[in-house]
Design goal:
The protein is of the alpha/beta class. It has helices at about 15-25, 60-70, 90-95, 125-135, 165-185, and strands spanning about 1-10, 30-35, 75-80, 110-115, 145-150. Strands 2-1-3-4-5 form a 5-stranded parallel β-sheet, sandwiched between helices. It holds the Pfam family FMN_red.
Length: about 190
C-alpha cells in the first residue's frame, strides 16, 4: 500500500513536517508512506492544461506530481492553518491535482487530514476548508474523530517527534484507520 503524504508547509523544520515525519513512522507494517514535495510546483495556470492554448506547455513538475498522486492508494494531508484557511502552497497542489478535468489525480482517493496550529483550535478552519475543496473529487475522508492538534508547538519534543504518548496513540489510531479505509476501497 502506498500513501502519499502532503505537507502544507514549505519550511524544512516546520511543525507540520515534524508531525508528518512522525506520522509516517506510525503507519502499520506494509504501508509505504512518503512525503510528496510541493514547494517546487509553479503556481497553477489553466493555460497549462487548456488544449486551445498551443504555445504553453504543461510543466513537467505538474505531470510528475499528478502521476505520483494517481499511483497512490491514499493521501494524508498534514497542514497548518494560515489566516483561517490552508496555506497557499497546499491550495496550489490541490489545484494542480484537479486538472485536467478528464483525468483528476485526486478522484476517489481515500484521504486523511491532520491539521495543527499553535492556537487552541488545532487548525480547525484549515481542515474544514481543505475538506470542502477535496469533497469535489469524491475523496472519501475519515469520519470522527478528526485530528486537530492545538498548541502544536508544545506537542513536539526536542527530538522533533510528537509527544505526549496519548497524542502519539491518537495519531497512530488515525493513520491505522486511514489504512483500513484504503483497504476497503481497493
Amino acid at each position: 500500500m502506498k500513501i502519499s503524504v502532503i505537507v502544507g508547509s514549505l519550511r524544512r523544520a516546520s511543525i507540520a513536517r515534524k508531525i508528518a515525519n512522525h506520522a509516517i513512522e506510525l503507519f502499520p507494517e506494509g504501508v509505504e508512506a512518503e512525503i510528496v514535495e510541493i514547494g517546487h510546483l509553479p503556481l497553477y495556470n489553466f493555460e497549462y492544461d487548456d488544449p486551445t492554448v498551443e504555445d504553453v506547455d504543461t510543466p513537467q513538475a505538474y505531470t510528475d506530481f499528478r502521476e505520483t498522486i494517481k499511483a497512490s492508494d491514499g493521501i494524508l494531508f498534514v497542514t497548518s492553518e494560515n489566516n483561517r484557511t490552508i496555506p497557499a502552497c497546499l491550495k496550489n497542489a490541490v489545484d494542480i491535482g484537479s486538472k485536467p478535468n478528464s483525468d483528476v489525480a485526486w478522484k476517489n482517493k481515500p484521504v486523511g487530514i491532520i491539521s495543527h496550529s499553535v492556537g487552541r483550535m488545532g487548525g480547525y478552519s484549515s481542515q474544514k476548508n481543505l475538506r470542502l475543496a477535496l469533497s469535489y473529487f469524491d475523496m472519501q475522508t475519515l469520519p470522527q474523530p478528526e485530528v486537530f492538534l492545538g498548541q502544536s508547538d508544545t506537542l513536539i519534543g526536542e527530538d522533533g517527534k510528537i509527544e505526549p504518548e496519548r497524542t502519539i496513540e491518537f495519531v497512530r489510531d488515525y493513520v491505522t484507520r486511514l489504512t483500513e479505509l484504503v483497504n476497503k476501497q481497493q
